[in-house]
Amino acid sequence: MPPKSSSKKNQASWFHCESCGVHIPSKARDNHEGSCSAIAQGDVGPESEAEYVRSGAIFTRSLQQRNFELDSLKDLPAKYANMLVFVSEGAMQLAQLHIGQHVVIEASSTAVQPQVRIVWPISEQFLTAVFVSEGDFKLHCTQLRGNLLKIFALDPSCLTAAASVSLKHLNNTETFLKSGQLEEAIALLKREMVNRIFCKDSQIHMNFFNKSLIFRLVRWQGTVEEALAGLSLDSKPMQFVQVTNVTKVQLISENSNQQSVDETISHRITKSQIGGLDRQLQLVQESMEYALGFRALPAGLRVSRGMLLFGATGCGKSMILEAMCAVAEDHSQGNVQLIRINSGEVYSKFLGETEQKLAAIFERAYNHYPHPTLLLIEDVHNLCPKQESSDLVKRVSLAFLSLLDQLSTPRQLKGKRTFLLATSSQIEALHPSIRRAGRLDSELELGAPSPQARRDIIRCLIQTLEHQMSEDEVDNVASITHGYVGADLANLVYAAVLQAQPNPLQLLHLQNALTRIKPSAMREVLIECPNVQWSDIGGQSELRLAMQQAIEWPLLHAEKFQRLGINPPRGILMFGPPGCSKTMIAKALATESKLNFLSIKGPELFSMWVGESERAVREVFRKARQVAPAIVFFDEIDAIGGERGEGEGSSSGSSVKERVLTQLLTELDGVEALQNVTIVAATNRPDMIDKALLRPGRIDRILYVGLPQNEARREILKIKLRPMPVSKEVDMERLVHLTEGYSGAEIQAVCHEAALRALEQSFEAEEVKWVDFEHALQAVPPRTSPELLNLYEDYLKRK
């Protein structure tokens, strides 16, 4: 009888033979008698042309390339399309296969390796014909053609998840890539292999930048090594392995030495290779050893099973993770299980699959008990963000938090030797719930390294290099690399070594590299200051000394300040008429002191959004603390530090200004100390600045930058006329006398106008004459009003 089916068309398409117990297409009924007895006795040879369905398996010779489109699969990526095999609805029903089930395609020839695909239904008109995608047919299934194929459901007992798989490169030596390229190719290939199922000796093809690479799966290692050690493909059913997100991909070289090319570890990093983080390494190691059972836990003490490392990018978070892997392997003699959770690979567009992947990872960790398991997550804020932008992110965050709760629950016996290390470079973007007790309850911040830490980092970086640097020279480099994190110092040494080739590394090479390698912690606010020296500023010798006393001396002679109990000034205010070199002095200070320099303009702190202006002020000082010692320069500070209560009413603009001022006052002298950060401010109207901003402990040193006197004007003119060809008839002393009341900027304008006057007279002019200066003095009069000068005098008397 034909099989029961709800479709009359299906009933008419198939014929059931009572003698041999198979279902065949109705059109093949007349030719079935010749093969019926052989099928009944199970003696069908590979040359048989019969195509039928029997005992949950489809036997066919019609493997073809799919040349039709299905609306349900038009948006399916090529990777997943190549994992499908298309079978008629009737054949699926007779073989008791369901949509999306993994099936094995086995050839009659034992020389052809079986293939595992996902079955998908097509129209009944094809009957026993089987189709695969064009890419799959060309790369993997051409060898199956001409064979009698058996398609049947994959037995779950024959499938295992791989902890690691070992591949061998089969291409000829001419097509081999360079070592670095081959590692990159393996890393990309792993992404293509995820969720696919293979067997031993399966060939894996890859197109890498127009190079066809072929690999063979030599062996794999499951989660339970003992269960796989005795498996034999000859004596037991064919075993299959599935690659997951946490599977490590390894490459076997020609000399059979296994080389790991997992994209997260290229070589083993030990604690001795990390400089400047001794205290942090000790704290992390102690927590890990207690959690993994390497240290005896005091009675009654609750162990923390999750730790969060956070800090700026390049401070050494990933290196600490790698060092802890080495420590764990040494303690456990190789029995520790290392599981890396890549947040980018965990996410899936299919509903519920992401949560299942996370649960499978933690279940794999538990199943490794009683051996220890170390879980590693980098950039955990991507897996559990504060801003849940979609339902998927919200579901994943909740699932991850639930798994963390299970990790530290006493009832979870298998989790007793499990420890989770997570890192984040954006702590403000991390969901706050993950930081509570019982989850990632231990936290360690990695900030920008101190001079001592930078010295240790540089020593570690050059210990394996050929160099001629003394300890004093290393200290010198460490003292001037403010704001440089470990990654910046590594780039600095790398650039210096390239410049030194083929000679040994010297101090000069590092000094030259400093002009090109900037601290990453300062990239958001770093400005390119002109190369302004103190010698470029005429006069102002007293002001220069005051600035050096306030900023340079506390850094260069810190021990003397401590011995005398002197606290350096927190802030300096320069006030005076416009054009008197206040901003230029700040630039010279940044150049001469070699400190990190943050230049802030008042209007750029204001925002129309509530709270954003205050946040901008906090961010400025957070960055300054991070890269300390540093100078924060506020130009025209009266724009944000004006007297409170000005104007009528409480308009929104005034309200924002007052909130910004309040935030500024808090940052200067609040609960959180401002260490090694000096405020330098400039203004033309000191009388408009709020008195609270100028009290001791905030901006406590006020310096008047007045109009230049005779000696100062003489120096300014010498500096400005130095590059200018001036006629011998030009009387310098007379110019000094005639420019009385001029600011430094106005004296520069006089020199500039005189040179233009000379060009106006003749483009062939070779020098600037006295008549040109007379014209320039008439064109550029002094613009500082007596009223403004009187205001400064009154202010000096009051303060």
UniProtKB/TrEMBL annotation:
UniProt-listed PROSITE patterns: AAA (PS00674)
Residue span, AAA+ ATPase domain: 303-450, 568-709
Pfam entry (one): AAA_lid_3
Cellular component, GO, one term: cytoplasm
Gene3D superfamilies: 1.10.8.60, P-loop containing nucleotide triphosphate hydrolases (3.40.50.300)
One example GO MF annotation: ATP hydrolysis activity
UniProt KW keywords: ATP-binding, Nucleotide-binding, Repeat
Protein name in the entry: Spermatogenesis-associated protein 5
Species the sequence originates in: Drosophila rhopaloa (Fruit fly)
Lineage: Eukaryota, Metazoa, Ecdysozoa, Arthropoda, Hexapoda
